Sequence to fold (347 residues):
Amino acid sequence: MPSQSKNSTFKKRANGFTLIELLVVIAIIAILIALLLPAVQSAREAARRSQCKNNLKQLGLAMHNYLDVNLVFPPGICDDGSGALTGGGWSVQARILPYIEQGNMYNLIDFRNSYAAGSSPAIDRVPVLLCPDELLDEQRSSGGVAQHFPLNYGANMGVWLVYEPSGTIGTPGSGGEGVFYPNSRLGAGHIQDGLTNTIMFSEVKAYQPYRRNAAPGYTSDPGMPTDAATLAALDDDGIADPRATGHTEWVDGRVHQTGFTATFPPNFETPFTGATDTFDTDYNSQQEGNSTTNISYAVVTSRSYHTGGIVNACLMDGSVRSIGKDIDLTLWQNLADRSDGEVTIFP
Fold:
């Protein structure tokens, strides 16, 4: 057989991608990732919202278990009328601990005495009180030492008036339109609009900036704000920048820590310009229990980090609804008022 010359030997083609082919593959992968990522993020957000709703359902069930045992819903705080709240300041959320599988934490509490910042249970995390979307799910510290832990579900403390200690505008020791206020002892029959038409809890953000304690204080109604500018003009204690510690003390029963009011709809922005920046603020004209004469009016807006501006809320019957920031303000305020005579129809 004749031998082949070296010049006639065929060269094998090298295996692999050309640069153009590689770039095409990379481009296709990038497009697929770009298409897939929003779907993954949407699925994760849906899961977080579902967990948030489940938390609220647990709180609603716990509240009804408390009602079954005590025949009334828990008070916002217990005010002894001294004007210096030294005991009884425990929150609604603290009082239902045995019914959210936190019996050991509940046993640490002596409700005759104030909670102690920097120790249990104030510094302890209660998982069912925290939304998975919360960005600051962390202990509040001072000087590197843990002091408190925040929460994301505020109790319904009305629309504007929260507490009247002296009787200058009504019955001494009376509260506002909400379900929870100092020394309240409301049973299911007191929710005259019906349990399906009244909010129990709604979402709030941790580390919410707020102003408080008008000087010299309001002994008559200064008028409920109807816009952010009117709210910003209300008197406070004169501190230049609002405190950024609202809703960071789950043990504290005052409205700016564990409550909300329906003055404005969910996620409504109320900017206030301080010395260093402009802050989206809440407001409490007087810390409940800290005065025998000054009335507590509050703008503590329901807020969340959920997409679309929605907040989740638990009604007094234990059902949970998602409510948008564009809800009609009158409807929202009706939901926070336990006895305005309005039957709520959700859109």
Observations:
- The chain has six helices and 15 strands.
- The chain has a mean pLDDT of 91.
- The first helix runs from residue 19 to 70.
